[in-house]
Design a protein that fits this description.
A 5-stranded parallel β-sheet has the order 2-3-1-4-5, with helices on both faces. By secondary structure, the protein is mainly alpha-helical. It is 74% helix and 4% strand. The protein has 23 helices and 5 strands. It has 3 domains: 233 residues, no CATH class; 187 residues, no CATH class; 192 residues, 3-Layer(aba) Sandwich (Rossmann fold), CATH 3.40.50.300. The two termini are 39 Å apart. Helix 1 runs antiparallel to helix 9 and helix 13 packs across helix 14.
């Protein structure tokens, strides 16, 4: 039977990008504009000191956002994975635990902020002139933090539940309400920065309330009181799944803390003073975030197109998608560059008026700090592209390079050498270096795509045909690389006269997903530590997660139909509830593994040990990520045996004997 091809592999690229990117762009812009609206009305109603105060309070909001996204994105990923495994009860517990922990952290962080607000403001570069405004604004904002944190966490889960429109509507409602209330509280009631803060928390409460009301409308799960009871193992998994969002947001906090303190220090040594630089750079960064939101939205929308077609080896479609994404992003960033260079005075005037020094520094900042913003049109999409195709190390490097690896050192070095102008120059230096790095990695990847021919697999769908038995013999074999575990598994299958599954699983998964066998083989059972950085705010499950879900379904189907030996793929965990399963772990000493690896796998002797350790580490990471257990923990298995202790034949005989005895003992 011929399978229907996935829309990602056949629809016009431009049409797909519009379909997936526009919702992402809207959601990101809503988030960006949420913060900018306060700045605009405060600038006109209070003055630039009010804006400077909001800029030193802003990192506190980002810290809350970091925790919210970690728990929200982690819960949504947990929900998707467990639903894929057909485990609705566990999915409900994941969502319930995510909500419960977000409530606890929100209350704790609110209390900490209210108690230690003066000290926290000092960390983020608050000056004496800004302190009164910052304390008034910050104390009210702190009261609303629980609403913001819980509402944001729920937003991610609602999207994963299949209601992205509801999620977006609740966010837009809050943003629109904030825009309406800001001028009322600031200009009508003459409440200044306190009025802006009240408008913000009231808007956050409405978003929170809308999202709370959705809980009873969940499509895929039904929450109970028991699901909300915190369980450490579930919380750890949620945190692991959402840690990338936390790291991304906290990197912004770190940058803002360093930047504000340097602005205060070197601004005081210049004619501009401390307050003008803190205020202006904060505004400029938020304006540039509008540009970045559009670029991220375009690239994120293209992520599933990249991932599917790369996995299906449709490299022409991958290159076409990359061309459209980069072209669109560069056009957007070029338009932004022209605006920043030609009308910076008009842009800063949106946020209120200022004296001559204020306007002079604002124009200098736009023209200097954002001089190479065009580079963002390449650097940002590149990180998302490598994430989509499973190149986690490159993606993580590009994601962290601009902010942490390049910007902060540049700010410290250049400000020390050239003062406030040097600090502003750190922006284009970081943008330029990040662009060069991204270009080098992209050029190499495109060369690879050009060299590799597109292969289309057209195969007949094959059914697993065997007599179903309530007493199937199921043997799972986990093994160290080079231990001979696969060979022993094949011997066991031959001796018992049952099916052997390893490469056959890859073939069947390729048929059901449309991904190539080569891609599956290169990406399954291997999880880099840096892969944790590849699940961002608006990113859905990646191909590795989809592969695990499909493999789990197939492994359960096979085990239900016939006796078999299954190699790797967390099969011992997936089939843990099967009474007839015999779980085996095969290992050996490094010297023996090196001998096998060089003789049978073609590894060079001098590099064999390093490669063996690398592959085993990837297998351990994969196992830990999906099972929450240690791969080489002997308590996970019925038998752990050194393949060289008895020799492959006798080890196989021993496994057969134990499996037979286990079968007869099962009633």
């Amino acid at each position: 039977m011929e399978k229907e091809e996935n829309i990602l592999g056949k629809e016009k690229i431009g049409k797909l990008i519009k379909k997936f990117s526009i919702p992402c762009i809207i959601s990101l812009l809503v988030n960006s504009l949420y913060n900018i609206v306060d700045q605009i009305f405060i600038g006109w109603g209070v003055g630039y000191l009010g804006n400077g105060a909001t800029n030193v309070v802003f990192p506190l909001t980002i810290i809350c956002l970091a925790f919210s996204l970690m728990l929200g994105d982690g819960s949504s990923a947990y929900l998707s994975l467990k639903l894929g495994e057909k485990k609705k009860d566990e999915a409900s517990k994941g969502v319930g635990n995510g909500i419960a922990v977000s409530v606890i952290i929100a209350i704790v962080f609110c209390a900490i902020t209210l108690i230690f607000l003066p000290q926290l403001l000092n960390i983020f570069g608050c000056t004496d002139a800004l302190r009164e405004y910052a304390l008034k604004y910050g104390r009210i904002i702190a009261i609303g933090l629980p609403f913001m944190m819980i509402g944001t966490a729920l937003n991610s889960v609602i999207r994963a539940d299949g209601s992205p429109k509801y999620s977006m509507t609740s966010m837009v409602t809050g943003a629109v309400l904030n825009t309406i209330l800001d001028p009322i509280f600031i200009f009508v009631f003459k409440m200044g920065v306190e009025g802006a803060a009240i408008a913000t928390i009231f808007s956050q409460f409405i978003t929170f309330l809308l999202n709370i009301l959705y809980i009873k409308r969940f499509k895929s799960i039904k929450l109970s009181k028991a699901d909300i009871k915190p369980k450490l193992n579930i919380i750890k998994k949620i945190v692991t799944l959402g840690i990338s969002s936390f790291i991304t947001q906290m990197s912004f906090v770190f940058v803002m803390a360093v930047e504000n303190n340097l602005l205060a220090k070197y601004g005081a040594e210049s004619k501009f003073g401390s307050e003008i630089p803190i205020t202006v750079v904060g505004i400029v960064m938020k304006v540039s975030q509008i540009l970045n939101s559009i670029i991220i939205g375009i690239a994120t929308g293209a992520q599933p197109i990249f991932g599917y077609n790369y996995g299906a080896r449709k490299f022409d479609r991958v290159k076409e998608t990359l061309k459209i994404v980069l072209g669109s992003s560069v056009i957007i960033s070029t338009i932004a560059f022209i605006l920043f260079q030609t009308i910076p005075d008009k842009l800063i005037s949106i946020f209120g008026s200022g004296d001559e020094l204020y306007m002079e520094f604002a124009c200098l900042t736009f023209r200097t700090y954002l001089l190479l913003c065009i580079c963002n049109g390449v650097q940002i999409p590149s990180g998302i592209f490598f994430q989509a195709i499973g190149k986690s190390s490159k993606s993580a490097l590009l994601s962290l390079s601009r902010q942490i690896l390049l910007l902060i050192p540049s700010m410290v070095i250049l400000s020390n050498a050239f003062g406030i102008v040097g600090l502003l120059s750190a922006g284009p230096v970081a943008d330029g270096l990040a662009f060069i790095l991204a270009t080098i990695l992209l050029v190499r990847e495109v060369k690879y795509l050009n060299k590799t021919s597109t292969v289309t697999y057209e195969k007949q769908e094959s059914d697993i045909i065997n007599n179903k038995s309530d007493k199937n013999i199921i043997i799972t074999i986990s093994r160290e690389y080079g231990s001979g575990g696969r060979y022993i598994g094949k011997l066991v299958a031959d001796k018992l006269g049952i099916k052997f599954y390893d490469k056959d699983l890859i073939t069947q998964i390729a048929e059901t997903t449309g991904l190539s066998e080569e891609y599956i083989e290169n990406n399954e059972q291997k999880r880099d530590k840096l892969a944790a950085l590849n699940n961002g705010y608006y990113f859905s499950l990646n191909n590795s997660d989809e592969l695990f879900i499909k493999e789990s379904e197939l492994i359960k189907k096979i085990a239900n139909k016939e006796s078999c030996v299954i190699i790797g793929r967390c099969a011992d965990f997936i089939l843990k509830d099967n009474e007839n399963i015999t779980k085996v772990f095969i290992y050996s000493d490094m010297e023996s593994k090196i001998k096998r690896a060089t003789k049978f796998y073609g590894l060079e002797k001098e590099n064999a040990e390093k490669e063996i350790k690398r592959i085993n580490k990837l297998r351990a990471n994969h196992y830990k990520y999906y099972t929450e257990k240690e791969w080489n923990d002997n308590s996970n298995y019925d038998i752990c045996i050194n393949s060289d202790a008895l020799g492959s034949e006798k080890v196989a005989d021993l496994i057969c004997e134990i499996a037979k005895q286990k079968e007869t003992s099962v009633v």
